[in-house]
Amino acid sequence: MMRQNQTLNLVLASQSPRRNSLLKQFDIPFQVVVSDIDETPLIGEAPDQMTLRLAKQKALAVFDKVGKGHRVLGGDTTVTLQQRILGKPSGRSDAIDMLNQLSGSTHLVHSAVALASDNGCETRLCSTKVTFITLTDIQISQYCDSLDPYDKAGAYGIQGAAGRFVSQIEGSYSGVMGLPLWETHQLLSQ
After folding, report:
1. Measured between alpha carbons, how far is 9 from 73 in angstroms, rounded to an integer?
2. From the CB of residue 52, how many other CB atoms can be counted at a distance below 10 Å?
3. Which is catalytic among the residues 38, 76, 145, 148?
4. Distance between CA atoms of 56 and 74, rounded to whole angstroms?
5. Among 38, 106, 154, 173, whose CB has the most other CB atoms within 10 angstroms?
């Protein structure tokens, strides 16, 4: 159980409504301060390492803004298929292309969380295997008619209508949504 003084001055370094909603499950008051970092992958960087780096950079960037005495939680989620990163789609054709790639295959979702405080910055990584059914062109087109795929890595959100495309998950459902709850609990409980 967390002591009262551990919950004070918690900041979420993300504007993601999914991370916000998941963090509320801890029943800890927090404020949101958005980080503004370059999320470009480094040459030769593995997707899981990139996810960890970005979560840490987001937490540290906001910690620099809000100052000492705060605890800043940063997160990042990366969808990868055969070590290729599938980011947020740039438009409809990009979303259709990503969903066609994910159709009938298993991909990895890396979700990292970092907690920056006066004591430094700790990180945790969660990797989850997600298997999609084989999608028809009609299913993909109808899904892309909604706004759902356009602000999410890999062009889908498991918690929404695309959940029906998932035939199997091995790992953390909340991690696929964007904030792995167990790993977040580990950091917040320290």
Report:
1. 11
2. 20
3. 76
4. 6
5. 154
CB of 66 within 8 A of CB of 122?
no
At the topology level of CATH, where does 4-189 sit?
A: Maf protein (3.90.950)
Strand partners, 126: 111
* Cα–Cα distance, 39 to 158 (Å, whole number): 22
- Tokens linked to 81: 């298929």
pTM > 0.70: yes
Q: How far is CA 50 from CA 39, 111, 142, 154, in A?
A: 9, 10, 32, 16
Active-site residue, 76 included: yes
